[in-house]
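EI: anyone free to look at a 389-residue chain?
SC: sure, send it
EI:
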Amino acid sequence: MNDIILLKLGEIILKGLNRRYFEQKLMANVRRRLAPIGKFRVYCIQSTVYVEAQEDGADMDAATEALTHVFGIVAIVRAAACEKDKDAITNLAREYLQEDMEHAKSFKVESKRSDKSFPMTSIELSQYVGGELSEAFPNVRVDVHEPEFTVHIEVRDLAAYVHGAPIPGAGGMPVGSNGTAVTLLSGGIDSPVSSYMIAKRGVHLIPVHFFSFPYTSQQAKEKVLELAELLTAYCGHMTVEIVPFTHIQEEIRDKCPEEYFTLIMRRFMMRIAQRIAADNNAKAIVTGENLGQVASQTMEAMAVTQSVVDLPTLQPLIGMDKEEIVRLARKIGTFDTSILPYEDCCTVFTPRHPRTRPRPDEVVQAENALDVEALVEEALRDIEKVPLG
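SC: here you go
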C-alpha cells in the first residue's frame, strides 16, 4: 500500500482563466521543496495537487512536514488509493486507518464523489463503509455529530482515496505568483514577520540588510542571515543583499541635526532599496513598520520616509499589536533568533529626542548638508550578496 499526498488549494480555485498559472507556480514550488527529500511525481487534477513517491523508502513524513511551509496550500492529506469499488474502499479503510480506528472511541464516515459516474451517492457510500467499519471495530461507536475520528473517502477521476484528518497548510498564494519585492530585514522581531506575511501573498522576496560595522558586530550580520535562512522554509530561495551603511550613518551624525538622525537614515534606506528593486525588477518595498510603535513610525514620520521613493511601500504589520507580532514570530520560528542581543544599524547614533511630527521641508533642509547621490552610489557599489535556500 503506497501513501499519496493530496494538496488542497485555497484561493487559487477562485481564479478564472489564469488559474493554471497559479497551479504551475505552486507545483514548481512543491517540486523544489521536495527535491532534497527524494524523487516525487507532482501533478494537478481538478484543483488538487497530487504528490507520489517515485522510489521505495521515500520519507513521506519529511515530505509532509516540508509541504506545511509551502504557501498556496490550505490542507495536506496523507491518503491511500484503490479502485473505485465500494468493497475495495471498505477494505482499504479498514487496513489503512486501523490504528486510528483502534484508538478512537467514536467515528463517522464522510464521502465526496467528484466522479459522478460512481454508482453510489456520497451518503450511500458513507453509510455502507460506516456499517462495515462498525462491524470490524465493534468497540468504536458511530457518532455522526461529534466523532473523535472521521474517515474521509474521496472518489475522484483516477481512483478512490481514503484518509484521516487533513493537516492544515500554510495558506496564501504560491511564492512568485504575485511578483517580486525588496524587504528590509533588520534583525529584530518585526521585519521577519512582515517578510513572511508578504511572501504568503505570493511575493518573491529580496531581503536587504544595512550593516554598520564596526558599530554593529559580525554576529549581528550572522544573526540576520540566520533569520533569512529560517524564512527560506516559507519563502523559498532568496539572495540577501547586505548594504554597507557605516559611512552614511557617520555622515548623518557629523552633518545633520540629531533629532533627524533616524528619519534621514530611513530615507537613505528607502532610496537604496528602490535602486536594488529596479535592478531586480521588483515592484514594491516591504517594511516592518507598526503605527506608533517608535518615534519614526508616526504617520508624519512615515510620510517623510516614504516620500523619497516612487514604489509602493507594503507594511503588513501596520495595525497589529506587538503581542500579535510576537505570537506570529514564535509560530514561524524566528522569535528566538530575533531576540539575540546583537544590535543592528537602527540602534546606532539613536537621537535622544527624535522628532515624532517632522515637517517635510525641515527634513529636506537638514538633508541638504549631505551629498545624497554620492553616498547612495557608494553603498550600492559595495553590496555583498548571499544566496540562501
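EI: The first helix runs from residue 19 to 34.
SC: 👍
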